[in-house]
Amino acid sequence: VIPFTESQFILMALFISICHMIVIEGLIQHKAGINGVFITVVRLAAACLAVFIASQFLPGTEIPVVMPASIGARLPLSAALLAWTISTVKLMLKILAIIVPVMIVLELLKELGYTGRIARVFKPFMLLLGLPPNVATMWVTGTFFGLIYGSAVIVEESTSGRFTEEELTRLHISLGISHSMVEDPALFLALGVGLQWTVLPRLLAAALAVHLYRLSRAIGLRLRPSLQSQEL
Questions:
Q1: Residue 36's pLDDT is what?
Q2: Measured distance CA(28)–CA(39) in Å, rounded
Q3: In terms of Cα–Cα distance, which of 42, 8, 21 is closest to 197?
Q4: Per-residue pLDDT reduced to its tens digit, 39-58
Q5: 3 state DSSP class of 61
Q6: DSSP class of residue 74?
Q7: What does the pLDDT look like over 72-98, one tens digit per residue?
Q8: Which of 6, 69, 97, 202 has CA atoms 20 to 30 A from the CA of 166?
């Protein structure tokens, strides 16, 4: 086991939570109406910024990682495989004990039709995130089920023609940073990372990114008439 400090592991968990499966999820979001390269850059930038800010509140992040001598020691292949198998099985059982109940609950909510009701509850929350209320259903789907599991709903809704390009861009920026907010935190919870490090920073980063996008767009729209008049 590589001896990372608790703080270093928290920062890695935060970065991975934002940027995991970035290629596949980027393709899904591209199909759902946003440039894949753009959303990939946004997610990487958000992850770096979130990790940097979180590191200011965590001690021991600057401690160098010293590889233990046992890692370099050569064990017999059979002994190494046995040790790896045992540790992997223990970890998988611990993860399954958390993930399986979570996924069952999510699927039940989906099958019983509670996703739409949950979306209505979250509509006021959309304003804090900088999102229009009419994207609440897609936001709830991506937030609770993730971009991969919720891709069918997200792609279908995004291509329905009922949303503007600007609304979809804001939605995808938010989902790109803060999707799968049940399964991912549960996974890292099994590894010892508290929810306060895998949920709150991502929501704050998503809200900040969306509001910055809205601000940049507003400035661009305000400057456009003056630039056009100068060209004339």
A1: 92
A2: 11
A3: 8
A4: 999 999 999 999 999 999 88
A5: coil
A6: P
A7: 556 677 887 888 788 778 867 776 776
A8: 202
Q: Which amino acid is at 229?
A: S
Distance between CA atoms of residues 148 and 21, nearest Å: 9
With beta carbons less than 8 A apart as the criterion, state whether 143 and 179 touch. yes
Query: What is the pLDDT at residue 95?
Result: 63
Angle between the N-to-C axes of helices 114-128 and 136-149, in degrees from 0 to 180, rounded to the nearest 10:
110
What are the CA-CA distances from residue 169 to residues 35, 101, 134, 137, 166 (Å)? 9, 33, 13, 15, 5
Can you say whether residue 114 is alpha, beta or left, with left for phi > 0 and alpha for psi between -120 and 50 degrees? alpha
Of the candidates 70, 16, 54, the residue with the CA atom closest to the CA atom of residue 201: 54
71: confidence class by pLDDT, cuts 50, 70, 90: low
CA–CA separation, 30 vs 122, rounded Å?
A: 25
What one-letter code names the amino acid at 146?
A: G
pLDDT at 145: 80
User: Which residue type, as a one-letter code, is found at position 151?
Assistant: S
Distances (CA, A) of 129 to 173, 175, 186: 11, 11, 22
21: left (phi over 0), alpha (psi -120 to 50) or beta: left
Encoding tokens for residue 43?
């997610």
**Could you tell me if 138 and 157 are in contact, meaning their C-beta atoms sit under 8 angstroms apart?**
yes
pTM: 0.78
Q: How confident is the model at residue 68 (pLDDT cuts 50, 70, 90)?
A: low
